[in-house]
Amino acid sequence: MLLQLANVLGSGDGARAFARDAISVGPTPLASAADQKVRSLIRDAADQLCRVVDGNLDFVVQVSESDDDVDKLLLLVNFVLASARRSFNELSEVHRRVQEDLLAACKLQEKLLPEKLPRARNLRVAAKCIPARTVSGDFYDFFRYQRSGHCVGLLADVSGKGAAAAIYAALASGVVRSLADNEMPPAAMLSHLNSRLFARGLEGNFVAQAYFTWDDDTRTLELSNSGLPEPLLLRKGVVQTLPIHGLPLGLFFEANYEALRIQCEPGDTFVFYTDGVVDQLDRDGNEFGGSQLAEIISNTPFRNPADTVEFLFAQVSKHCQCENNIDDQTVIVLQVE
User: Fold this and answer.
1) Count of the separate structural domains present in the chain
2) How far apart are CA 241 and CA 43, in angstroms?
3) Residues 184 and 45 in one domain
4) What percent of the chain is modeled with pLDDT above 70?
5) What is the pLDDT of residues 61-77, one digit of tens each?
6) Together in a domain, 247 and 157
């Protein structure tokens, strides 16, 4: 019976079922008075131990009468409970510290994202990131080249998830900013970023990133890509993918990237996104998918980029019907005026 008790304590239903079975055992014609006493004491102890199932470790198992064998057993049980209390308290403290560190990292990561989106006469911008965990491996940034006046934007997805990905994302973001004063076009910027990240020697880590510049005077968008899904362009009600590709950053010593230069028209809408958006699964294991994303963009009229971003995330959430994302999700929407 003691072995049975030990085996079922890890399961709430099992522990309660055992307690019911123990309580239902009545005296048999052949049972001695001593046997009946031991049965009664074990029923009493089992009933108390059910409190462990509910997470209550702060008690001592006691029975109404003394019995040498049962007393020895209860001494061992209470010793195990005391050890469990100490371990639980230590784990709770570790968990508290980890949560505090993650919260601090989350606040720091929020500071790494741009506080204000770029303002231009002919371009409106919106962006949003939803981490799969407390911190994210996705990030975006916007700034302006001081000499040319071009607006610059990027969207990046770091390999992995959680704290490790967030640290590498902070590194990658810092490298981008360190090169910004050189005012390189997108393809050259990605090549330099690749060399810098590869030199760090973090084997197995990489960054998928789209990098674009915007010339507001000529309404020209130039972009390069290093592993993110193909961006979408909505023009006159028709959605097309932009065939721009490249190797993820940091995997190879040298990598060259192509650039796509687009002469934009008023009303053009560009959608950049990380794979966490289209990879989101529903309860049957079906992906949200790029086709559904394109269909939503083509069939839904939007007044501004912010509405587009919020609606897209609402549709992904509706598809998933789950509390947590399987991956970080980030969307940038550009609308030409």
Assistant:
1) 2
2) 69
3) no
4) 86
5) 777 777 777 777 878 88
6) yes
